[in-house]
Amino acid sequence: MAIIVRLDVELAKRKMRLSELSEKTGISAKNLSLLKTGKVRAIRFSTLNAICKVLECTPGDLLDYEEGEI
Amino acid sequence: MKSQFIAKALTLIMIVIVVIGILGILISILASGFAFTGYLPERFVPSMEIPITVNNLNQYFDFSTLKDHYSDVELEMRGLNLELVPRSADNIEGWIYLFVAIYIAFYSYAAFLLYKILRSIAQGQAFDPAQYVRIRDLGIAVIVIELFHILIIPILGGLWSDLTNILPQGISTNFQLEIDFAVIFLGMIILVLSEIFRQGSHLKELEELTV
Questions:
Q1: CA distance, residue B11 to nearest chain A CA (Å)
Q2: Would you say residue A26 has pLDDT above 90?
Q3: What is the pLDDT of residue B92?
Q4: What's the complex ipTM?
Q5: How many structural domains are present in chain B?
Q6: Mind telling me how many Å the CA of A57 is from chain B's nearest CA?
Q7: What are phi and psi of B78, to 5 degrees?
Q8: Domain A3-65, what architecture?
Q9: pLDDT value at residue B25
Q10: Which residues does B69 contact at the CB level (< 8 Å), separation at least 6?
């Protein structure tokens, strides 16, 4: 996977659980779990916006790039 | 709710059609044979040509029951009873039953696929990944049924040739090759539709993997 999702790292930094993030953002825990494990094909801007707002971070903190196939 | 009702109604109709078909064949087998269909002119003149459609396979495959025996062929035409004893037409009956069985098998398979398609639509899973495979198979089945139809006419014509040799003078059989391009075209449209469903399924999958 060329795009790496660092959601677990950001959650760990803030000692926040996925269920708590789900409650605060209104995004289902299932979708957040998929996002955390990198099993998604795309992220909506609205999703990214909600997560960044709650975690007080930038999309760059959540996403990373590594050489490789998608 | 409405689509569920339509799906159920269509399923019921299909089941009834298949049951009638099977019953028709069973009756046909029990009656052991099939009949010639034909007609006589208003005034029967022995020397004139009497067109008889011996094959009339459409009747067969429309599941109407036909009556006859190869060992003792009977032509019933407006009270006139004509008895013929063919020299060699031993296996025709078996072939007919085989063809009819294959026909029913294809129709049943097509009906089953249609049922599965309608059921998944009723369940709100129109773009299920398996859906396009069903629609594609249905399209192929429709085309194969028609190709089979085209194929068996000459085969049956050949099988009947022995029988026609001993038919009385003036009576002729008719095996016309009939190709229903509309059915083949319909099958091709279904195949195109299956491709649309395949792409729809892909889009749905993409949508599901977007958070």
A1: 37
A2: yes
A3: 61
A4: 0.76
A5: 1
A6: 18
A7: 45, 55
A8: Orthogonal Bundle (1.10)
A9: 63
A10: B32, B33
